[in-house]
Amino acid sequence: MPQPYERFDAWRLSHQLALEVYRVTSDWPKGEMFGLTAQARRAATSAAVNIVEGSAKRGAAEFRRYLDISNGSLAELGYLLRLGKDLGYLKVSAWEDIESRRDRAAQALFGLYRALGKR
Description:
The protein is mostly helical.
């Protein structure tokens, strides 16, 4: 049975982004496993998790607060992926693809945030 949060494009895109972050970071240096790799994965997961958690709260204002946190996680992830690219852990083409995914998730998140403000 589908969960209520699954109806949100912002969640679907954030979930797909998290899966992709796990995939691309699996090749990063083992020395980064508890550093940059873990932090990028945590930020990606946090973006999706905060949509899930916020959708379970009562009221649009509380949900929007969690969407703000999710937005911050997407911004953090953007920097971490750029750092990974600049360190040579991520090829430019892979970075461009994942950055595009991150941008789409952020746009959907903002649309959801805005829609909740109109309630």
